[in-house]
């Protein structure tokens, strides 16, 4: 076991700042997604909620779980929140926040009991990988749409759009981010957003901000959630989908990063896993209270860990780095939507890489994973992908004569998923 206490204050400070630099793009991207025209969510309120969640929950991760992991609204779930729940299903944003809150409560119950390990061990790795890959495709689609590369079409659903300055800026952003990523520069995503925004302002495509600073907005989204309205039976499938997606994301991040960084017990189990998952659960419930999509531990934390951050002090440093972001709403609001397209595409690429772990040689593994993968972007719904994946995995394993390999917990999840699919019609 590698002790997190082996890090010095200097190492943890450098690591904490590095982690912040690699994930600070969420301060721009999350408010942009959640305040998409039609959602009704105020940009300034979402920005304040995003920063408050990242600052508060990363601090809790450092002080309570004593882990060098940063926490912020998760990519993928923010798109699901805005585009599926609000725009597609016409759920009021206050009710959607209530759904996030209840998903967090369920996640907390799962994380604090032995159910956590049973569920974690029961979920096939192929379905976890497929869900991540599907979310990656969804984010890529949104990035291309923001840049006008893909547009709606009444005959073919989607088609190639007009390649104008937005598409050119998308390509430029990808090139800038790719160039800096290859050189392991933690500011790659932020630099891409800054370069595209600066050129858009300078060339007259967008209006530069009249001011840079303002006071944080704690009045428009904080405690605006509709807790009782979120308890409607028809919304239960989406609440469960948020729970499972958050659980997948958290387990994948903690297991993957901890293993790669050597932050494990002697038996290979990630250090303080239970406490880390509890913080993630609190982050999701808190997101609903503050006015944001669910929070989760960020895989970008590996960058800070590799720079020396090995203990909870690194997370404390990362949390403090978020504080100045409370006052940058005018600057962030002036960033054009297509300036973040490159980030969405590149995050999508990184998430899609998980598909390499799926075994496509056997139909009972391949088909559930494939259906999960394609349904998420085609339906704009993480819910549909995950629920159909559970059902098909159990049924196809039974048909293939491998029913005993499914396990009681996964059978229960499959039955629950089938019921939720029927309920959601």
Blueprint (SSEs and pairs):
Layout: H1 9-23, H2 26-34, H3 43-65, E1 71-73, H4 77-88, H5 93-111, H6 115-122, H7 125-146, E2 150-153, E3 157-160, H8 165-182, H9 188-202, H10 236-261, H11 273-290, E4 295-297, H12 301-306, H13 312-322, H14 329-333, H15 341-352, H16 363-379, H17 382-399, H18 408-423
Antiparallel strand pairs: 1-4, 2-3
List keywords for this structure.
mainly alpha, 425 residues, 18 helices, two-stranded antiparallel ribbon, 3% strand
Question: Please, could you describe this protein's structure?
Answer:
With 425 residues, the protein is mainly alpha-helical. 64% of the residues lie in helices and 3% in strands. The chain contains 18 helices and four strands. The protein has helices at 9-23, 26-34, 43-65, 77-88, 93-111, 115-122, 125-146, 165-182, 188-202, 236-261, 273-290, 301-306, 312-322, 329-333, 341-352, 363-379, 382-399, 408-423; strands at residues 71-73, 150-153, 157-160, 295-297. The strands form two sheets. It has a two-stranded antiparallel sheet with strand order 1-4. It has a two-stranded antiparallel ribbon with strand order 2-3. Strand 2 and strand 3 form a beta hairpin. The longest helix is centred in the middle third of the chain and has 26 residues, at 236-261.
């Amino acid at each position: 076991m590698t002790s997190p206490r082996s890090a010095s204050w200097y190492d943890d400070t450098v690591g904490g700042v590095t982690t912040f630099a690699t994930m600070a793009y969420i301060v721009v991207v999350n408010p942009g997604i959640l305040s998409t025209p039609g959602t009704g969510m105020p940009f300034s309120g979402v920005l304040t909620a995003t920063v408050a969640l990242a600052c508060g929950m990363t601090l809790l991760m450092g002080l309570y779980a004593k882990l060098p992991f940063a926490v912020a609204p998760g990519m993928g779930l923010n798109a699901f929140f805005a585009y599926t729940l609000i725009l597609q299903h016409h759920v009021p944003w206050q009710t959607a926040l209530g759904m996030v809150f209840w998903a967090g409560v369920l996640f907390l119950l799962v994380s604090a009991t032995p159910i956590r390990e049973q569920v974690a061990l029961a979920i096939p790795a192929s379905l976890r990988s497929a869900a991540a890959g599907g979310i990656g495709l969804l984010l890529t689609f949104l990035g291309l749409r923001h840049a006008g590369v893909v547009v709606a079409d009444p005959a073919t659903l989607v088609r190639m759009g007009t390649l104008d300055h937005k598409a050119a800026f998308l390509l430029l952003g990808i090139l800038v981010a790719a160039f800096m990523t290859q050189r392991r520069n933690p500011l790659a995503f932020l630099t891409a957003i800054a370069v595209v925004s600066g050129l858009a302002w300078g060339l007259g495509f967008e209006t530069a901000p009249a001011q840079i600073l303002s006071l944080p907005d704690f009045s428009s989204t904080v405690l605006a959630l509709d807790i009782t309205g979120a308890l409607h039976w028809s919304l239960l499938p989406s609440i469960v989908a948020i729970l499972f997606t958050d659980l997948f994301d958290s387990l994948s991040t903690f297991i993957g990063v901890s293993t790669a960084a050597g932050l494990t017990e002697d038996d290979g189990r990630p250090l303080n896993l239970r406490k880390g998952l509890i913080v993630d659960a609190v982050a999701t419930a808190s997101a609903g209270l503050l006015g944001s999509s669910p929070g989760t531990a960020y895989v970008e934390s590996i960058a800070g860990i590799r720079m020396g951050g090995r203990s909870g002090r690194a997370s404390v440093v990362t949390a403090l780095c978020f504080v100045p972001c409370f006052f940058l709403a005018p600057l962030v609001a002036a960033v054009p939507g297509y300036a973040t397209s490159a980030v969405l595409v590149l995050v999508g690429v990184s998430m899609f890489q998980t598909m390499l772990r799926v075994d496509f040689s056997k139909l009972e593994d391949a088909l559930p994973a494939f259906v999960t993968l394609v349904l998420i972007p085609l339906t704009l719904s993480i819910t549909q992908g995950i629920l159909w994946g559970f059902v098909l995995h159990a049924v196809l394993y039974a048909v293939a004569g491998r029913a005993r390999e499914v396990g009681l917990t996964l059978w229960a999840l499959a039955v629950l998923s089938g019921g939720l699919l029927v309920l959601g019609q």
